[in-house]
Amino acid sequence: MKKILFPTDFSNVSINAFIYALKLADSINAEIITMHVYQLPQANYINVAEYLHEIYDVTELSNFENYKDEIPVLRRIAEENNLNHIKISHALILGNLIEEIQKITKHENIDFIVMGTKGATGLKETIFGTMAIKVMNDVKAVVLVIPERCKYEPFKKLLFITEYQSDDVQSFMKVKAFAKIFQAHIDCLQVVPQDHEDNDKNMHHREELMDDSSIKMHSVTGNDVEGIILNFIDSHKINMIAMHVHHKNFYEKLFEISLSKKLAFHINIPILAIHE
């Protein structure tokens, strides 16, 4: 059975992302492992030694009680969506979020990581939102990130961002397999900077991506990469964006673009980041 890791901070953003984890688990016959990672408080006042044990005990108990209270909420969401047949297990871990995600991903052979983020204007205002970016950058896994304003709908139109590099081809194979599960259409988009010399060195990679007539290839020239992609998402009614992790500078900017350029829309679709 495949495995989906669902890191949670108990927020509404995280709970919203759980629906995506459930739907994905149902589609690929997977189980879900939820995890909450917490850290002990940094006590730096005088004569703390005699109280340190009590502080840690109270903190650990509080985290345990909070997590225990959240588990029925997750189960109720599964039942409300007729997905209570999905196996769900839970892990409460003391440590660093990124390090613990890396450990459990390797130890449990995780297939997907699903997590929510504040997205748009809130990305840099919340710790968990920032963590989603770090997970995409640092964890070698397929990561599905759900911005807060996403409302679940079946994945029907996927956009794959490509530069026709060898890594893109490997990631694209995973995107194709993902799209097949949901019977989704794929658009591939390359943004070519102005005055860029096309020496066709990646032509064979381009041909590998074009081996399926149902996949549409698009090439747009311009220097406003993020703006071009966002406009493509809007005009083609894309409801998921996918890319290899070497595009990380793009998806870091993706959440800021509506502020810096005062665009009329935000990125409100899931992002599938593939890290090898």
Automatic annotation (TrEMBL):
Recorded protein name is Nucleotide-binding universal stress UspA family protein
Which InterPro entries does the record associate with it?
Rossmann-like_a/b/a_fold, Universal_stress_UspA, UspA
Q: Where is the UspA domain?
A: 1-147
Q: Name one Pfam family in it.
A: Usp
Signal peptide span: none
Identify the domain of life: Bacteria
Q: Report the sequence similarity comment from the record.
A: Belongs to the universal stress protein A family.
